[in-house]
Amino acid sequence: MIAPPDNELQLTKLFPIIGWLKTYTRQNFNDDLFAGIITSILLVPQGIAYAILAGLPPQLGLYASILPPVVYALLGTSRTLSVGPVSIAAIMIASALTAPEVSALGNPVQNALILSAESGLIMLLMALLRMGGLVNFISHPVLTGFTSGASILIIANQLPLTLGLKSPACGIEMGCYIGYLQTSNIITLLISITAFALLLFFGKPLSAALKRVGLNLTLVTAISKCGPLLTVLLATLAVNYFNLAAQFNVAVVGQVPSGFPVLSLNFINAEKWRILLTYAAFIALIAYVESVAIAKVTANLRGEKIVPNQELIALGAANLATAISGGMPVAGGFSRTMVNFSAGARTQMAMLIAAGILALAVIFFSARFENIPKAALAAIILVAIFGLVRIKHVFHTWNYDRGDGLAELATLLGVLILGIEEGIVLGIILTIARNLRKTSHPHIAVVGRIPETGYYRNIKRHSVETWHHLLLVRIDENITFANINYIEDYLAAELGRQPNIKHIVLIFTSVSDIDTTALEVLEKFNHALQASGKTLNITEAKGPVLDKLKKTDFIKQLKPGQIFFHTEDAVKALV
């Protein structure tokens, strides 16, 4: 088989679509066509809902669901990720746009486009700096805590819409809130209750019923995912037929411009870009981390591979595309991606088809979106977001690892109390601090031999043989400047407890590196032991560690101490 030329490989690497198009089949297209049609059902209600959640005109959510998925399809490495507006990014956009310094700038639409452009440029800069591995620096507990906190904020933001309430102007007076709740709109509440009932029915109950009658799993997925669109259609028909907006003051989406937006760069404004940069950085970070996490879920199910750095390029370009085409910031959406995957999508052709269908809807049917009640859209968001609030997960994490549990809880509370950006920063700081503490306080165990075996285990966990003049110590971490003083203090304390020790054996099973600072401290420690008539010995050192030690005088300085291959060899020689 002849290998493709280097320039072709580079082109395929930059445009993964070339790779899967080479093996694309008619059956693939049939699967993608079906998945694209099913996924497109979600695009209109979600696009409008998330734009309203972000405090933006509805068309910004629709525009963000057309060109960005096309750009991602060309550049992305996930074959099923659905890129567009997402709930978590929407609440972050809302938080940014309502910040005092941003509100003072005016023109929230232009500000949203700047957030899109800056997020895209930040991702492209990260790709240039090969920062795709950044996704590994936000732990799952922190991400879960952030998602739970942001989801609670979304719920608090959307609940008033289901009751027909405007944002409260109350302080802490309970009487004010009682009066505020009394202004709820009963018709809006009925729309909300009906929408909730319909959406919940189209979830597990309908899926279970369809499976019981023996319907194909793909058709079950297709039918059950029609809930949001049917909810919007029925609610809009009710508003139109009974004239609910005029007669009963039911809040509706309002006018949505027809046609595709004109591509433009008129959002460029140096002063606004400077003020919005910090907010855009957080949106870019969360959008990237969430997108890669979602992409990996579906990729792992099919044995496919996600290239994190290429994902930065694809998502960065998609956000630039949404800015130029008048849309809000985008990321990979979990619900849309899972619908796309479950409907049988094989490649990004499914999203190209979905984006094409939405483009036709925006061009020819925008006028029909005008009377969509906001309560129905709020119900769609609440049903989608409720499962992301994972309070029980905090207790589960705490029981397993208190450090991770603290980080998750602090992130959740930080998002709710301090703000979205502050909450995620707090979680990252706590995670880094915890890892630094773990590194600086490594697990160290005094070990002994399990009788009649060659195995050596912690004396606190097992019944083992020990020797009054021999101290066996296993260090379960690399030895660095951050922990060498802790290790030295530990050894000194053990020698203080066991004054008869003549030989100390350091077991390096888990040591992969010893840095310069640590080596200097070990040399001084060895000299102090020799001065008191004791020896320092090493066993089970790995090749890379020995290679570094051989470049120094440390091995010579050990004498009469030795380096042993096995712990058993050391015991036989020193007992």
What does this structure look like?
- The chain has 575 residues and is mainly alpha-helical.
- It has three domains: 20-163 and 253-372, no CATH class; 392-440, no CATH class; 444-574, STAS domain (Transcription Regulator spoIIAA), CATH 3.30.750.
- It is 64% helix and 5% strand.
- It has 28 helices and eight strands.
- The strands form two sheets. The protein has a six-stranded mixed sheet with strand order 4-3-5-6-7-8.
- Strand 5 (470-475), helix 24 and strand 6 form a beta-alpha-beta unit.
- Helix 3 packs antiparallel against helix 18.
- It is elongated.
- The N and C termini lie far apart (62 Å).
Essential attributes:
8 strands; elongated; mainly alpha; 3 domains; Transcription Regulator spoIIAA; 5% strand; 28 helices; 6-stranded mixed β-sheet; 575 residues
Q: What is the fold's blueprint, element by element?
A:
Layout: H1 6-14, H2 17-22, H3 26-53, H4 58-63, H5 67-75, E1 83-84, H6 87-97, H7 100-103, H8 108-128, H9 140-163, H10 174-181, H11 186-201, H12 204-212, H13 217-224, H14 227-242, H15 244-248, H16 270-302, H17 308-324, E2 331-332, H18 334-342, H19 349-365, H20 374-386, H21 391-400, H22 402-417, H23 420-440, E3 444-449, E4 456-458, E5 470-475, H24 484-497, E6 503-507, H25 516-531, E7 535-539, H26 543-550, H27 554-558, E8 563-564, H28 567-574
Helix pairs in contact: 3-18, 3-19, 3-20, 5-17, 5-19, 6-9, 6-16, 8-16, 8-17, 9-20, 9-21, 9-22, 9-23, 11-14, 11-20, 12-13, 16-17, 16-18, 21-22, 22-23
